[in-house]
Write a structure and sequence with these properties.
This is NADH dehydrogenase [ubiquinone] 1 beta subcomplex subunit 10. This protein is mainly α. It has two domains: about 35 residues; about 90 residues, no CATH class. Helix content is about 65%, strand content about 0%. The protein contains five helices and no strands. Helix 2 packs antiparallel against helix 4. The longest helix is centred in the middle third of the chain and has 36 residues. The chain is elongated.
Amino acid sequence: MPEDHDWEAYKVPPTRTPVSERTTSVPNPVNFFQSAFSYVFDTPVTFVREWIERWQAKNKFYYYHQKFRRVPDLSQCLDGDYLCYYEAEAQWRRDRMVDQEIVEIVRERMAACKQREGPNQFQNCAKEMELLAQVTKAYQDRYGDLGYHGNARTCLMKQKHRMMEERKAAQE
């Protein structure tokens, strides 16, 4: 390889960017507006934001999930205690949403196992299939046939009727 390069074929960029020379003594208005904006708008906003961040750093508040306290079931409410009825209904709705999510997560795990295993899904995904069957049966036992407008009272009555049928079948 030759030591001397062909400077015309491979032009080397300049090593330093040339500094523009001022041709006039008039100040640049852009610099004036930038500094005015900085002092009038940016500095106070930055000060307030840093003050708020310092104040919040003292009082850390972690809010990952809203936590509700457990309330008495509808069967534990006193007669005519409408606030207890309302809280039990809200608790039932939250429990139903949690159970729906549990079923959905197990279903997604089952689908992922089927996708991953391919033709061997019946052998390798037997545990997931059994878990999905158990979860869907439990969900269907508790919330099945209630429909969209189901509530805590109808769910409680369904549970009561199921328990009565189980006792009657056990006696026979």
